[in-house]
## 1
Amino acid sequence: KKRVAVLISGRGSNMTALIEAAKAADYPAEIVAVIANKVDAGGLETAKAHGIAAHAIAHRDYPTKQAHEAAVSDALQAAGAEIVCLAGYMRLMSAEFVQAWEGRMINIHPSLLPLFKGLHTHEQALEAGVRVHGCTVHFVTAGMDEGPIIAQTAVPVLNGDTSDSLALRVLSVEHETYARALAQVASGKAVMQAGRTVFSD
Ligand code: GAR
């Protein structure tokens, strides 16, 4: 099984979904550490309750982005992490950090990329008037929300939707989408090559 660290900033429902999925005997990854960049990230307690090493490495406690990332790198190395999953990790990483993990770091984004990069994706979708929305799991590359796509799931936009109702519908498909995508990466069935995802079965 591949050793996976999950980086979070908040409640960690996607993190929890990965932890649950990884309990299956035939799942190709195990979650070995959870790291939050905020001390009050709710997901830290959830991770501990599952018996997983959980670390708060608050960016506020470090003088520079570089110093914070060095601390995160140390924790990843100490955990023996082979794959990094960003799950609601709301902090941009330096090009150096991204490059160090290229092909081995994945992220979930709450839109059907390449539409609606960045923040407030559900507001962006409502504003654009799309009738289909969803989530994307992708390899992390230097451009924000631009890396090669591994998995996507679509949901309908319904009449009367608010950004909250839409966010809930998207979240309800994020969890299984992320668990499926991580399995593909951990098993080597989805590989990043020359800026594309190459799939095999
Ligand atoms: C999820 O909807 C995730 O897609 C989104 O934050 C939420 C985290 O929820 N990520 C981003 O917006 C990344 N820019 P969770 O903490 O319950 O998994």
Note: The chain is about 35% helix and 25% strand.
## 2
Amino acid sequence: QAKQNGGSQYCFYTEEMDQHITRKLQLENGLRKAVEQEGIDVYYQPQLDVFSGKIIGFEALARWHHPDLGFISPDEFIPLAEETKLIVPLGEKILFEACRQFRQWMDEGHDLERISVNLSAIQFMDPTIISTVESVLRQTEVAPEHLEIELTESIVQDSVQALPVMNRMKKMGIQLALDDFGTGFSSLSYLKDFPLDTLKVDRSFIQTIHENEKDRAVVDTVIQLADRLGLSVIAEGVETEAQLDYLRSRGCAEYQGYFFSKPLSKTEASALLTRSVAM
Ligand code: C2E
Ligand code: MG
Ligand code: MG
Ligand code: MG
């Protein structure tokens, strides 16, 4: 028997832990099934030209509706998929589906520059990644120049492993974007050492552009830095017209965010493309 006072606290704690573990197991089993049975959908967030307003491409984002637990955020299931290595087969399916959809839009006559796909560190370090990407591009008949791989600083940090893979992708003609730029902790030297094409300014800096002089300074500096290094820059998480106006005044060429559109199902994204042709 546990002691009276400390005891109840201890029990409360285990109950919470139990719930946590139960949910985790439930999600893990659900995830395994979802990966096998195509239960995870790909949504598409439009990326736009700041100056012309034209849709340039889309970022593919994974969506999972658990049969009992409902909508699960990628911020919860992607780390779990990484932990269980399910991210490798899942990531391959997402890459395939995104490229297949992109091919379809191009075949329908839509003039898009890119499809952006997020790769996690585990996928990126997997020895089969290059052959997987090659095979997906071949099967979907998407030109490598149209595929943009989004990497985070955590990948770039392990430069001994990451650099050769990035160089291989670059040689194939694939575009490489650094996601959530400014939120990681690695040194800036990788910006000159790695074959990057694009910096994605993290949404946290965009969100407070109009409240915070320091965030404006960060955004301005990232835009200038990209320019000096010959990289493209895209702002993430643009939610207001004022934010977009600010980016335009700073010469930031591309953006994505709820101001124009949240991530869309393939049906919604197709309808949006058809509408924008008609306009
Ligand atoms: P991310 O790659 O930085 O994706 C951008 C996230 O910001 C997405 O969240 C998107 O829905 C959200 N977002 C876009 N515009 C706005 C805006 O204006 N306001 C706000 N508040 N949010 C906005 P989501 O889809 O929940 O994904 C979260 C993260 O999960 C992604 O961040 C990415 O790191 C990861 N993720 C999502 N799908 C995949 C995937 O297929 N593979 C891998 N490896 N990771 C993925
Ligand atoms: Mg991303
Ligand atoms: Mg991001
Ligand atoms: Mg993110």
Note: The chain has a mean pLDDT of 92.
